[in-house]
Amino acid sequence: MHALPRGNGTDKTAFYTELNAGLAAVLEGERDLIANAANCAAVLFHALPDVNWAGFYFLRGPDLVLGPFQGKPACVRIALGRGVCGTAAAARRTVIVPGVHQFAGHIACDSASNSEIVVPLLTGDRLIGVLDVDSASFSRFDESDAEGLRAVAAAVLAGSDVAYPL
């Protein structure tokens, strides 16, 4: 098994650089999107400090459908434009929410979650799904996390075959 960094919050840029190197080693040689998303969710859940959920939703018709994740059971279907995940997917942009209980339309899958970051998975203009990470702490995520997780999402997509119907 590959050694993964454990962030301490002091130098997020260096942490995400090391995390992405470790993730690349985990994904090497595998092209299946679901397998790579599963390993990525595990890597994020165990490497990111102060995280209580990390995983993927994939676009299936008009909904985001739960994919591989780590954490408590989650909502299975989310409509585009609904909740933090649906908002990020519809807007095709990263959404950082410091306090999810103040987010209009927030979907509370785990009442312990207080902040969230969602990164859309895009190949060109095509929306594949989203990468979603939650924390029990308020204001856990910032722009450094957004940049780091966008690189994680890009690595998963680049290392995976996404041609089959999602």
Number of strands: 6
Helix content: 25-40%
Runs in which pLDDT lies below 50 for 5 or more consecutive residues are none
Widest beta sheet: strand line-up: 3-2-1-6-5-4
Distance from N terminus to C terminus (CA atoms, Å) equals: 29 Å
Number of helices: 4
SSE class = alpha+beta
Could you tell me the CATH topology label.
Beta-Lactamase
- The proportion of residues in beta strands is 25-35%
Q: What is the CATH first-level class name?
A: Alpha Beta
CATH superfamily membership: GAF domain
Largest sheet: 6 strands, antiparallel
Radius of gyration, CA atoms, in whole angstroms: 15 Å
- The H/E string reads HHEEEHEEEH
Protein name: Free methionine-(R)-sulfoxide reductase, contains GAF domain
InterPro entries: GAF, GAF-like_dom_sf, Phosphatase_reg/MetRdx
Domain GAF: 18-165
Organism: Frigoriglobus tundricola
Structure description:
Residues 18-165 form the GAF domain. With 166 residues, this protein is of the alpha+beta class. The chain has one domain: Beta-Lactamase, CATH 3.30.450. The protein has four helices and six strands; from the N terminus they run ααβββαβββα. Helix 1 runs antiparallel to helix 2 (33-47) and helix 1 (12-27) runs parallel beside helix 4. The longest helix has 16 residues, at 12-27.
